[in-house]
Design brief:
Endonuclease Iii, domain 2; 0% strand; mainly alpha; 57% helix; 2 domains
Length: 214
Amino acid sequence: MKKIDNNLRIRDILDLLARTYPDAHCELNYRNPFELLVATILSAQTTDQKVNQVTAELFKHYPTPQKLHELTPEELGDKIRTIGLFRTKAENILKSCRILIEKYNGQVPQTMEELVNLPGVGRKTASVVLANAFGIPAFPVDTHVSRVARRLGLTSEKDPERVEKDLTMLIPKEQWIDCHHRLIFHGRRLCKARKPQCATCPLKSYCLFDNMGC
């Protein structure tokens, strides 16, 4: 790793990520905040590709909380059966739909406090919705973000909330959303959990991977 001023090092890392992934974006398909909320709940422990396959048909017929809430947990479970933990996710989604209808007039709330009170919504899911549906600065931390951040020396933590705290302290707020997407792209495309493609990685000189054994 280069021995340079830490602020300059972080700026270089962010610049390299921006040049390498200029079009990084949320890879879940959605047309409105509600669809993103549902897709993100479904995405836990499942790939975005699998979620997109399921929601393509689901959102065609049930694009609002009101329409989706017409289903029973069993009916919704059948429609998302190929998704991991589909029964629990179906129950949580329908409970969240009911809250959205009764408390928010069918609209998705725009604060972290309100979102994390919805069934099936944790801090990461809430942050995804805030950042992508509403453009509100947030830094969702998934396994890709956590892994890449540790390897780049941006954090030594493993707990997602502590990783988020470290990253939001180091990275300018106006870059949180874009940087989140770029770290995910890097984790999915090059800095994989197993067999990372270090030989072709543009960030190799800033990486601690060889000394981490992770």
